[in-house]
Specification:
By secondary structure, the protein is mostly helical. It is built from 10 helices and no strands. The protein has helices at 2-5, 9-18, 24-36, 40-47, 53-61, 65-75, 80-92, 96-109, 112-119, 130-136.
Length: 140
């Protein structure tokens, strides 16, 4: 874990592979390295045994928004950033109602996400939408 935190992915990967029998969490750690290296399909394969925010992120990055939403819902994660990811999933599916409702939940839990949403390219097609503008307000 220390090698991962120090951004030494080669050493981190070697240690995680040695510990692979320790449980499915090790696969999630390997999946995080895969995400950092842009190997999204490998990340999904390594993380698929656990439903988590990171598994959902890997699935979304691997162009599987439905799988991402299913994994995120099954994870039980109801944090602001989890709702933000659900809004990104909805944006990729062009589902305005879910974009707005999930952003409302996200911003309600973490006000800093308002500014993030205002500048996030995932929401570019909603920038001129009145409901979106009302939600992110002066952060635009």
């Amino acid at each position: 874990a220390l090698a991962f935190m120090n951004n030494d992915m080669v050493t981190a990967l070697a240690y995680f592979k040695k510990a692979s029998s320790a449980g499915p969490e090790v696969g999630c750690n390997i999946g995080l390295i895969d995400i950092k290296q842009g190997n999204y399909s490998d990340a999904v394969a390594n993380m698929s045994s656990i439903n988590s925010f990171n598994t959902a992120l890997a699935m979304l990055l691997n162009n599987d928004p439905h799988g991402a939403e299913t994994s995120l819902d099954a994870s039980g994660n109801r944090s602001g950033i989890a709702y933000y990811l659900k809004a990104v999933i909805a944006a990729r599916e062009n589902n305005k109602a879910d974009v707005i409702s999930n952003l409302q939940q996200a911003i309600g839990q973490d006000a800093s996400l308002k500014k993030m949403a205002a500048s996030d390219c995932e929401f570019v097609k909603f920038k001129n939408d009145n409901d979106f503008k009302t939600l992110v307000g002066s952060a635009l």
